[in-house]
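=== RUN LOG ===
request id: a7f3
mode: sequence -> structure
chains: 1
length: 113
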Amino acid sequence: MDVSFYKHTKLSDLNDSLTIYQNAVIADKNLLAKNPNDYTALINLQTDEREVSEDQKNINTFSEISSEGVDTYLKNAITEQSEFDKLKSESKSLDEQINELKQKQAAVLNSLS
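=== RESULT ===
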């Protein structure tokens, strides 16, 4: 994550961008209502909806960073990533154990046949 983006960005800029794309989504939907086969409007709608989603995510992250402070936010993010990596490793280990047990089960079943 590029935290410097949030250091050099104002919340008002993010809100302005969100408003622009929300208005664009409304305009795209109006065009599609008039002509459902307007593929350009459909593509624009999908792009504008992605931008709205991205802006909302950025606003949420900005608010989180602002309330916690950059150092605390980064520390928490590193801790969460470390925990995720640990769980992912444990999951891989469990998958390997399950596969070994399945192989042993298959061997036992074959020997009984």
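=== NOTES ===
The chain has four helices and no strands.
Residues 70-112 form the longest helix (43 residues).
=== END ===
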